[in-house]
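R.M. (postdoc): so does anyone remember the format we settled on? I'll just put the structure tokens first.
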């Protein structure tokens, strides 16, 4: 077990695990966290997993973890690793089972006072309109031909089928579509699992949440984003559902079988991977991209359902709800960074880490390019969420990445032992937060006590300069599976 004394303090928010800790490390590992958070990160296997990541073939510069880090499958959640293109390793464990789990933020034209008297009704209508729950399907039932179209086109499919707006596409990472996606390398079982899950949030930590803007930290950037104090906004947090999970399962199994053919024997079999330019590596990347497209389409359809609920409750056009931004936090992308002064193409794995590109980057929507990419950081029920903005320092230090949320500190089982669902629901209602959920168990598993301090997580990345605070959001209604 790694000890705190083995870490080298670089700043108040950054620690180094030198590559001399273990002879097979190819690069050092960096831990972004304040001293108060270090003990919690050392409590599980997340830093041991980070050290394992630092041994991957082709890894560049450093293995990195954010302050919301916790133990995952192979890679720690909150982890970032970039390998050299095209021969470096691509590892499904570096993306995770919920491919393109991500967050989108919708902005409404109304202040909190404008919806307060109908908030409970709106929360109930949202719960009715957006299907949620483990394995829960929705009204859309895709044929295999339609599924292939979704996997190819992503959010564009929803727009073409009357469940989205063209203007939304400009405000989605990669415009909601990865063009290398190939439905033919996605298994029939994966497609079957997803055929009725478009427009659904699932369970676990996924949600639709109505918030009010509590604080503005950066007036200039908030104005560019179209954010005002007391404004009502809506967060959506979900991913590729059963389809993405099956893609990850299929390719982890395949890579475990074939990686010896490439001379790769990782310290942990959960780090299974193959060279990016191998047939298996290309098939996985193209299947992952198809699952990412499904997730972007899913969030676009959910937005359509939210707009319908808004219109039914408030008698106003659902189209007045605008998409601020949609960003993934479980994905691998091909990007370019300076390595030893040379522009180098890399395979960037982000697992529980959010892209945070700075001003001037062509990947940032033109509307936001003068200030940087919106970064969306959800908290937990009863705690705050944040809007941040990406920086050019993140491009230099963390492969254009930052944290993705509060990060768990208790397992779901441990959380249920500490608190009960009815108790949490009552406590949140006393705070003015309406909770609509399919089960009390799900509420208990996702209790605020199960998560780290979101304020400290966000303060860490802000102080590090890799994403800067723009606005703080307080929840007023939460919809969960």
């Amino acid at each position: 077990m790694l000890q705190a004394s083995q870490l080298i303090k670089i700043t108040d928010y950054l620690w180094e695990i030198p590559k001399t800790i273990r002879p097979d490390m190819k690069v050092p590992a960096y831990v972004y966290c304040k001293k108060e958070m270090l003990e919690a990160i050392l409590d599980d296997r997340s830093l041991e997993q980070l050290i394992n990541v630092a041994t991957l073939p082709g890894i560049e510069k450093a293995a990195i973890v954010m302050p919301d880090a916790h133990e995952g499958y192979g890679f720690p959640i909150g982890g970032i690793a970039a390998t050299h293109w095209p021969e470096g390793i691509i590892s499904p464990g570096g993306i995770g089972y919920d491919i393109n789990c991500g967050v989108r933020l919708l902005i409404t034209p109304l202040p909190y006072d404008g919806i307060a008297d109908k908030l409970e009704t709106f929360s109930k209508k949202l719960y009715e309109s957006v299907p949620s729950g483990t394995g829960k399907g929705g009204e859309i039932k895709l044929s295999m031909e339609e599924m292939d179209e979704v996997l190819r086109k992503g959010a564009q499919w929803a727009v073409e089928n009357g469940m989205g707006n063209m203007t939304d596409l400009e405000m989605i990472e990669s415009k909601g579509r990865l063009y290398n996606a190939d439905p033919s390398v996605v298994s029939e079982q994966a497609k079957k699992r997803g055929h009725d899950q478009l427009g659904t949030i699932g369970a676990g930590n996924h949600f639709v949440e109505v918030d009010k803007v509590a604080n503005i930290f950066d007036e200039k950037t908030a104005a560019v984003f179209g954010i005002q104090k007391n404004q009502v906004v809506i967060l959506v947090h979900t991913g590729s559902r059963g389809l993405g999970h099956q893609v990850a399962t299929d390719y982890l199994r395949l890579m475990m079988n074939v990686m010896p053919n490439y001379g790769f024997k990782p310290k942990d079999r959960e780090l299974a991977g193959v060279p990016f330019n191998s047939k298996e590596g290309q098939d996985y990347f193209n299947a992952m991209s198809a699952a990412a497209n499904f997730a972007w389409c899913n969030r676009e359809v959910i937005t359509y359902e939210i707009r319908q609920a808004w219109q039914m409750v408030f008698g106003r056009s659902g189209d007045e709800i605008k998409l601020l931004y949609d960003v993934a936090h479980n994905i691998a992308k091909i990007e370019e960074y300076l390595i030893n002064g040379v522009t180098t193409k890399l395979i960037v794995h982000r697992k529980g880490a959010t892209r945070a590109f700075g001003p001037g980057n062509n990947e940032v929507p033109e509307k936001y390019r003068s200030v940087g990419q919106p970064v969306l950081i959800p908290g937990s029920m009863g705690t705050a969420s944040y809007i941040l903005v990406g920086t050019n320092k993140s491009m230099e230090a963390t492969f254009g990445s930052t944290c993705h949320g509060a990060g768990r500190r208790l397992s779901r089982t441990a959380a249920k032992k500490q608190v009960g669902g009815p108790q949490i629901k009552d406590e949140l209602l006393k705070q003015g937060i309406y909770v609509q959920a399919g089960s009390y168990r799900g509420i208990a598993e996702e209790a605020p006590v199960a998560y780290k301090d979101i304020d400290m997580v966000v303060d860490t990345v802000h102080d590090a300069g890799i994403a800067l605070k723009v606005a703080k959001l307080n929840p007023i209604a939460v919809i969960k599976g």
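R.M.: ...and that's the designed sequence above, right after the tokens. Also worth knowing: The mean pLDDT is 95. The first strand starts at residue 8 and ends at 11.
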